[in-house]
Amino acid sequence: MDATTVLAEISGSIATVGYGLAAIGPAIGVGIVVGKTIEGVARQPELAGRLQVLMWIGIAFTEALAFVGIATGFIFGF
Amino acid sequence: MSAAPRDPADRTPTSNPVLRRALLWSGVLAAVIAVVGGVVGFVVAGTEGLVSALLGTLIAVGFMGITAASILIANRFAGSDLFVGAFFGIVLGGWLLKFILFIVLVVLLRGAPWLDPMVLFIAIVAGVLGSLVVDVLVVAKSRLPYASDTKLPPAPSDD
């Protein structure tokens, strides 16, 4: 067996890597959304209500991908 | 949104009515998807399909609604010194808890003999996408005052 094959060998299900990726992407996205909301509210506290709604829409779109990504666990293997 | 005069001492953020309306319409959407998905699931995969469609809709719309519900709960702390910390703690804590619950559900429900995995997956995707559409429609149709939570100084008088 040559070196490339040894290095590239994976045992177990590659699908689990996908579930990790499905969690990490939205985590970064929600971190950015919430962080920017904190910045906005710190600058203009009177806009808190408006910014909360925008933050909520941002979180909803970001987490939708995570849900679909992790829900593939129902149809693909571990 | 009604233009009812607000009590000046009321520090509740004005996002509450929008979020409440979004939760309400998400519930309506869940009922519609559950009925349509249940019928399609029953035709495609019998009783297992029916159960899967109902469960998938419940999971998707329920978990998507947790964000709005957590913001509503966190807004009860409005006006307190701990508001910012409590707000982001509750919203992000709820988010984390939701995903842990969802992963646990996937692990538990996978391979269950009384479920049809494909119907369940499609019901979850339909619920997530439909809930996004409802959220965007509710926000687009809502009117939030531009400077909502501000306190104006008393008007000068000429006396």
From TrEMBL, chain A:
CDD domains associated with the record: ATP-synt_Fo_c (cd18121)
Matching InterPro entries: ATP_synth_csu_bac/chlpt, ATP_synth_F0_csu, ATP_synth_F0_csu_DDCD_BS, ATP_synth_F0_csu_sf, ATPase_proteolipid_c-like_dom, F/V-ATP_Csub_sf
Molecular function as annotated in GO: lipid binding; proton-transporting ATP synthase activity, rotational mechanism
Keyword line: ATP synthesis, Cell membrane, CF(0), Hydrogen ion transport, Ion transport, Lipid-binding, Membrane, Transmembrane, Transmembrane helix, Transport
GO cellular component: plasma membrane; proton-transporting ATP synthase complex; proton-transporting two-sector ATPase complex, proton-transporting domain
Annotated positions for site Reversibly protonated during proton transport: E63
Annotated coiled-coil segments of the chain: none
Places the protein is found: Cell membrane
Transmembrane regions: 12-34, 54-76
Family the entry assigns: Belongs to the ATPase C chain family.
Protein name: ATP synthase subunit c
Species whose genome carries this gene: Agromyces intestinalis
Gene name of this polypeptide: atpE
Automatic annotation (TrEMBL), chain B:
Keywords: Membrane, Transmembrane, Transmembrane helix
TM helices/strands, residue ranges: 22-44, 50-74, 86-112, 118-140
Protein name as annotated: ATP synthase protein I
Lineage: Bacteria, Bacillati, Actinomycetota, Actinomycetes, Micrococcales
